[in-house]
Specification:
The protein is α/β, with parallel strands linked by helices. The protein has a single domain, classed as Rossmann fold. The chain is 39% helix and 11% strand. It contains eight helices and five strands. Strands 3-2-1-4-5 form a five-stranded parallel beta sheet, with helices on both faces. The radius of gyration is 17 Å and the shape is globular.
Amino acid sequence: MKKAIVLLSGGLDSATILYMAKADGFRPHGLIFDYGQRHNKEIDHARRIARAAKCAYEVVTFSLPWQGSSLLDKRKKLPVRKTIKPTEIPSTYVPARNIIFLSFAMSYAEAVKADAVYIGANAIDYSGYPDCRPDFMRAYESAARKGMKAGVQGRSIKIHAPLIKMTKADIIRAGIELGVPYQHTWSCYRGLKRPCGICDSCVLRAKGFAAAGYADPALEAS
């Protein structure tokens, strides 16, 4: 069976792509990052999702001592925006995060001879991060093809971003059809007992479940 590396954050989108990779006929390997984020709750939930999917996973720990984001620096306030405009890049943007994550994933994929990397980037209902856009994904895949042994030898590793042009509601509908255990996911930027309901991630998630016509099972489980 073909192998795929799945970037697994513990959130709604990454859980969905894990199950999409399985539905596409891949044997997924989860890649979870502990990079100094504000809380470890998302890491715990990523592990739960991987176990629920009977998926092998690795946790990679590293730090970004220069920080540069309210997701890394607890002294910075998390934004609370009534209206999320994709043209405004919020303080939760982590400099070059998806470039870093994809570089780890591509290295992992090449080492274990995986055929694909799955990432839950979305450019419709999202916070405005530049590294979640289709043009970035195309450019990164092209650069990786030129800079990796697999690419120059004709065995390119495909980057799949199946959610990139989907609304959050469509993502949730697709995930429910695939049996994604959304009760195990965590999207909130704060590591409280329950999701805060006011950060960008919570707002987008609530909007998605409302538009999809489903109750959020994570709110009942938390």
